[in-house]
Amino acid sequence: MYERIHVDEQPITEDEHPLRPDRRTFLAALAATSAGLLVGGVPGIAEAASSRTSLQRQVVELVTSMRRQGMIQPNEKTSWSVYDFTARKKVVSINEGAPRQAASMIKPLVAQAYFFQMDGSRGQVAYSEDVRKCMERMLQRSSNPDTNRIMDLVSQHQSRRGPADVELVLKQRAPAVFQETRIVEKIPTTGQTYRNQASAHDYSRFLISVWEGRMPNSKEMLRMMALPGGDRLAKGVAGFPPEAKVYNKTGSTAMLCGDMGVIEIPDQRGRKHAYTVVGIIERPSRAENYGAWIRNRGDAIRRVSNLVYQDMKSRYQLV
């Protein structure tokens, strides 16, 4: 029997839900539309209508400003999520439930599917040194061949249907976590993967579950996600403290720029505080200049991450 994993988060009331604004938020969004200030994709009022917290309003204003500056184009859709472990509540929820291309952010989920199989196999699915090294290359170096290798192993221990078995295992074991996750393809040799999907909310629920030890092999997952590598949450963020520890996975294609992770920072008394940050920017078509596009969108995510850090720093007197 599969043990199901559930995640409790701060509930979203109807007037706070980004896809169901009440009259007050609807009128505010309508006014923002007239002024050309909408943050979300077109059409939609999700980001402009959201006003859950002062931090959420700041994120909306920042993304709106970046759209004005051309750092995010009108046809690009975004999703943002921040969960505060100290307060135990969601403090930013913008277009969280919208399925987005997953790119390489799907890789921790692939590893988690294998860990689920280990947990239920009674020793028949082993965490060998070869598997561990594959996962490390997959998560630290974003190795596509190693990702496909882990997918094959999951499928081999399931029903041999390929990537679909990875999705099946995730949804059997944690249906409340992986609600918008869709895994239908391996990573091509070109690295151009556009069909796998997940939502910012799925990543948020996953990160919360792993951080709180609700997933099998949570400590090992965090160890691998903390291995030195690229990130858009701390690296290149001016003023970000060297004491911060980042557990993350980026995603990058000519149509998707994203990052999702947990950031842990001590306060001035040495007590540690942690929070999640998920940022996704998605295009409807391939960017002509991939290098410039991914660099600029990565900087947009860094600006949001810096805004979140400044808020947490003020709230908890972080270093």
TrEMBL record:
- State the reactions this protein catalyses: a beta-lactam + H2O = a substituted beta-amino acid
Indicate the transmembrane segments per the record: none
Annotated Beta-lactamase class A catalytic domain ranges read 131-269
Task: Write out the GO biological process terms.
Answer: beta-lactam antibiotic catabolic process; response to antibiotic
Family, per entry: Belongs to the class-A beta-lactamase family.
A GO molecular function held by the record: beta-lactamase activity
Keywords from the UniProt entry: Signal
Instruction: Tell me its EC number(s), please.
Output: 3.5.2.6
Could you tell me what this protein is called?
beta-lactamase
